[in-house]
Structure formats: structure tokens, C-alpha cells
Amino acid sequence: MALDTSSLKNLSAREFLIIGFTVIFGIGYGYYEFEYVSQSKKLKKIKSEISQVQTSLGAFQQVMLNPENVKRTEAQVIKVKEEIEKLGQDIEKAKSRLKGQDAEILNDLQHEADFYGVFLKSMRTTEKFVNRSGLRLKEVSLIMEMESDYDALKNFVASLGNSTAVIDIESLETKRVEKILPKVESRLHLKVMVL
């Protein structure tokens, strides 16, 4: 379809003004939607990033300007390093407590009981392997049948906390038996962890 230029010549000034205004409005609206809005978003994002950088830079300058802050920060870093070192030593200590032969640990328990005057009537053990904190450990369940007076039993049980092995007390039962008074019969269930 060919454009009829004769009809354009017959347009009035008012019609030219309406067409011109429509064209200008269309161009302006297109510029606003597709150029101005996207550039405004980019500008807002850049201003936000500049603000964050300036805040971080200001905080860094404050630290650098005040030597006390630098010294305090260095002291905190040293303290954290010492705490990490202490934790490392505690971990190594725990690992060394787990190392050892279960037979040695049982012998130590027997000697400890003898030392405190606890007579071991019987000792039964069962073993199983368990995974704890990424380590494969042998868990020895130990049931000790004993005769002793209350003080000897108390001292023996208290001494278990000082053992070099990792020992959990599962249960302790005592029973009065007339024919052995003032002694009591006791049943102590322990779990010993061995690496």
C-alpha cells in the first residue's frame, strides 16, 4: 500500500500539532521506560555499593587511626590462638586417654579396687565397636560384683574420675547382706572406651 502524500498536504495545523505531540510523547515514553528507569536502577545500586564501601573504609580508618584498637585487636587474636592451642591439647589428651589396651585398663581397675579395700568377687566384660565423632572405638562393658564397706566403695568410685582411661559409670547398686555386715555387696556397671 503506497502512502498518499496528497492527504498529508491537506492536514490542518491542529492535526500536525496532534501528530507531532503524539510522536514526541511516544519517543519520550519509550526513552523513560527503556533507558531512564534502567539507568536509575543501576545508579541506585552503585550508590548503595559506594555507601557500603565508605562505611567499611570508615571503620577501617578508625581502627588504623587509634593504636589502642590495633593493640586490642592483636590481643584478641593472640587470645583466640591460645584458646585454639588449648583445645588442640585437650583433644590430644582425650585421644591419649582413649589409647591403651583394655586388658591394661582392667588390670588398673582391679589394682585400684585392691588399693581402696574393695574385694572383687567377679568381673564380666563384653566388647563391641562403635563409631563416635569420626573415630572407631572399642566399647568395653564391665560389670563388677564387689564386697566392701561404704567408705572403701565411695573412695573407689571417686577414684574412677582420676583414671587415665575414658570411663562412664552406667549404674551402681548396693545391697545389705546380714552375714557380711558392716560390708555391703555392690554391682558396678562401667563402660570403658578404647581407641
Feature tags:
4 strands; alpha+beta; Alpha-Beta Plaits; 58% helix; 26% strand; four-stranded antiparallel β-sheet
CATH fold name of the domain at 100-194: Alpha-Beta Plaits
Mean pLDDT: 79
Which strand order do you get reading across the main beta sheet? 1-2-4-3
Specify the oligomeric state: single chain
Q: Specify the biggest β-sheet.
A: 4 strands, antiparallel
Distance between the termini: 94 Å
Under the CATH scheme, which class of the domain at 100-194? Alpha Beta
In the CATH hierarchy, the architecture of the domain at 100-194 is 2-Layer Sandwich
* CATH homology superfamily name of the domain at 100-194: Ribosomal protein S6/Translation elongation factor EF1B
Radius of gyration using CA atoms only:
43 Å
Number of helices: 5
Write the element-wise H/E pattern from the N-terminal end onward.
HHHHEEHEE
Strand count: 4
- Strand percentage lies at 25-35%
Helix content: 55-70%
Q: Rough shape?
A: elongated
Parts with pLDDT < 50 across at least 5 consecutive residues: none
* Structural class by sheet pairing and helices: alpha+beta
Summarize the structure.
With 195 residues, this protein is of the alpha+beta class. 58% of the residues lie in helices and 26% in strands. Among the domains are: 53-87; 100-194, Ribosomal protein S6/Translation elongation factor EF1B (Alpha-Beta Plaits), CATH 3.30.70.60.
